[in-house]
Amino acid sequence: MNTRVLIVDDRPTNLRIYAQFVTLMGEKYSAVTYADPVEALDWLRENKADLMVVDYRMPQMNGAEFIRKVRMMLGANEIPAIVITAHQDRECRLAALDAGATDFLQSPVSHVEFCSRALSLLTQSNKAVSLRRRASEIGRKHAASDSTKSTEGTSGKSMLEQIIDTIPIMINATDRSGKCLFTNAYQSALFDKDPDEMVGTDFADNFDPTLAANTRRRDALVLKSSLAIPHYEEKITSDGVDLIFHCNKSPLLNHKGETIGVLTTAVDITARKFAEEHRTHLALHDMLTGLPNRVLLAENVKSTIENCKKANSEAALLLLDLDRFKIINDTRGHHSGDALLREVAERISKVIGPEDFAARIGGDEFAVILSKFENIDSINSRCTKILKAINEPYAISGVGQIISASIGVSLIPSDGDEYEEVLRMADLAMYDAKANGRNCHRFFSEDMNEIAQADAALENELRDAFNDHQFALEYQPIVDAKTLEYVGLEALIRWDHPRRGRLLPIQFIRVADESGLMDILGNWVIGEVCREIKSYADQGIDLPRVAINVSPRQFQNQNICDELLANIEANGIDPSKITIEITEELLIDNNEEVRATLQRIRSHGVGISIDDFGTGYSSLQYLRDLPANCLKIDRTFISRIEHSAADRAIIGTIAHLAHSLDMRVVAEGVENDAQLDLLRVSGCDEIQGFKIARPQRAEDLGKLFHGRKDDPPSRAAEG
DSSP alpha helices (H): ranges in 25-110? Predict the structure, then answer.
């Protein structure tokens, strides 16, 4: 007999793929495909499907609506239905369950999972159909037997027996010794017997040993107490298929009210239990990876804490965050990012122990509970094993991909005996791993907690600083390497702290960046620089171009181009007066959107400088593709130029490369005459550092630049 699988999906490619999957299930299976759900409903009114596979998101009607309409059709209520959903469609899945969905598949669907799920549901459905058909046949046989016994038609009693025989509820009665007094057709069909065959036999013998023992125990309780045992569940396996029944046992009474046996009823709730399990799974598991989610992690950490206290033992919580995952989403799309996350989850699950617990707690963040370990070295080894597994190359959509992770470790219960506390400690350790170069693991230490508390206090003070106007700018001059003529300035933010005095960026920028305050701070710097240029221009003083540092986070989180151009226009200044300095970190995070923004900025005449070049991130491709017109060599190379031939060679190579790309080269951190002379020979165009001038307050720039062409800074100028 041919088994038909109805496939409904508005995308022709998916229809073709799923139809091919059906052919893989075997010769007796065939696919009926419709791109239009309305047409599929029309087909179902005249034809029968054994299984439905329905995409959730369709323009005509969604998958839940389609299934609800099918369930309203006569004879279509029992057709199992698989809904295909996207990874984050939690509400969609719940809606589909309410409509009568049986199971779910997550796109993209593998042929292995498709065939496995489909065959399992068909087996279960066929078993239920077989039971109903067998029960109906037995019922008809009994009805025919009754009709031959009465020439006047069916009596009230025999009619009741027919009803009891044919309803899809298992009903049986046993005497005090467990012998079957009566069973209806639906019950006997489960065991592939006629009701008459079962009468007089030990009813519990039809079950497996465990279920038989439970049945006899419950019967004994009813017989002893003459009280019912309502609302319990039993699993019965029939022909390899597990069925779940909601059961009730009650005393069977004679006309004197004496308990002479036990009456048992059981309703098949397999489909309902399946839906309930799906709901529970959705609530406790991540839909993308299938791993437990944050809710289940919290439960497991709490139980681990309690177990460790009772057993006087230790466990470890590992918090994993993928390094630079945003690049993959931005450059290759969320589809590739999701595929990578699923692969990472699978690798983590494979390398942890059978007693360990893994969860995805959001975004690119995972957690692992190590329940048992011998010592700290054992944790180190297992962290290394996890990192090694994650480091292995990935093939996402046929394209190779490499990624790493940073791991923070907190010990249970020594680092904390509350879930939130343990998680926070692991989080602090994870950020320490990020700060130490990524692709490594770090254990929580109390120093981290002290730093975190200090950062929290500093963050609050930063927020107050904005309101109290505590920030100021200083400007460090930049000169032509040959003439020492002033050609530029770099704007440097300072914080006039009410208690700690004037603070340098190194003392607060990290906290501002991590707390999300960089956008506000960066906008202020842009606005203030533009206002200073205009203010001096109004006084007849023409300041040279001013470089403004822009952090990667500031660049990515706001429309930096619009902010910059709006301030330039509002102050009526020449765009060439402004250069934005971006770091190599932004280069490694480069994507089409970033490149387009930089192109737009450059097209308006604003300069673009790559700051701190040579620290290890950049590639020649980034330099080739980005519209930068200036390159700043990191001060690390400058500090060693007097004593390192290798560093001199590197600086010369960088200068040559930059010039070939039509870029100026600026050497920063120049502190003495020897460095200045060597940098001139190496091909650097401009010089910045204490040798030239220290950062100047904004109000002092007028004096500094008055008549600058006639009075260049002396070689003997002190930093």
Answer: 37-46, 63-71, 90-99
Using CA atoms, how far apart are residues 217 and 67, in angstroms rounded to an integer? Answer: 42
Q: How far is CA 140 from CA 133, 191, 192, 567, in A?
A: 11, 18, 16, 88
Cα-atom radius of gyration of the chain, to the nearest Å? 38
- The alpha carbon of 656 is separated from its chain's Cα centroid by a whole number of angstroms, namely 44
Q: What's the CA gap between 345 and 290, in Å, rounded?
A: 8
In a shared domain, residues 462 and 580 = yes
Amino acid at 582: I
- Residues 709, 713, 718, CA angle at the centre, nearest 5°? 165
Instruction: Give per-residue burial for 66-84: e unless 16+ CB within 10 Å, then b.
Output: bbbbbeeeeebeebbbbbb
As for how many domains the chain has, the answer is 4
Model confidence at 627, pLDDT cuts 50, 70, 90, reads confident
Contact 104, 84 (CB under 8 A): yes
Going by the DSSP 8-state scheme, the letter that residue 700 receives in this structure is G
Q: Which run of H or E residues covers position 433?
A: helix 419-435
Q: Is 678 a member of any domain? A: yes
Q: Which residues face 582 on adjacent strands?
A: 610
Q: Can you say whether the dihedral through the CA atoms of 184, 188, 193, 197 is positive or negative?
A: negative
User: To 5 degrees, how large is the angle CA 93–CA 95–CA 98?
Assistant: 110
Across the range 29-56, mean pLDDT stands at 93
CB-based burial, 639-667: b 16+ in 10 Å, e otherwise = eebeeeeebbebbbebbeebeeeebbbbb
Q: In whole angstroms, what separates CA 470 from the centre of its chain?
A: 39
Q: Residue type at 130?
A: S
* Token pair of 220 as six digits: 């004994």
pLDDT tens for 379-420 read 999 999 999 999 999 987 777 888 999 999 999 998 988 999
Query: For residue 36, what pLDDT is reported?
Result: 93
Nearest to 625 by CA among 588, 651, 652: 588
**pLDDT at site 142:** 55
Instruction: Give a yes or no: residue 282 inside a domain.
Output: no
Residue 313 lies in domain: 287-444
In angstroms, the CA 120 to CA 51 distance is 11
Q: Are 187 and 197 in contact (CB under 8 A)?
A: no
Determine contact, residues 141/162, Cβ cutoff 8 Å. no
Q: Which residues contact 55 (CB under 8 A, 6 or more apart)?
A: 8, 9, 10, 11, 14, 63, 83, 84
The residue to which tokens 């009650």 are assigned: 250
Co-location of 649 and 582 in the same domain: yes
| DSSP element (H, E) containing 601 | helix 592-603
Do 349 and 375 lie in one domain? The reply is: yes
Report the predicted TM-score, pTM, of the whole model to 2 decimal places. Answer: 0.58
Picking from 208, 141, 206, the residue whose alpha carbon sits closest to that of residue 178 is 206
What is the per-residue pLDDT across 349-365, written as a single tens digit (0 to 9) for each?
A: 999 988 999 999 988 99
**449 in a domain, yes or no?**
no
Domain end (from 76, 109, 142): 109
Q: Name the nearest CA neighbour of 172 among 203, 137, 208.
A: 203
What do you get for the CA distance between the two ends of the chain, in Å?
92
pLDDT tens-digit series, residues 69-119 = 998 887 677 788 999 987 566 778 888 888 888 888 888 788 888 888 888
Q: Are residues 513 and 600 both part of a single domain?
A: yes
Q: What is the DSSP string of 257-295?
A: S-EEEEEEEEEE-HHHHHHHHHHHHHHHB-TTT-SB-HH
386: its two tokens: 């996890």
Residues 76 and 218 both lie in one domain: no
Predicted confidence at residue 492, as pLDDT, reads 95
Is 118 domain-assigned?
no
Contacts of 541 (CB under 8 A, 6+ apart): 701, 702, 705, 706
Residue at 102: amino acid letter: T
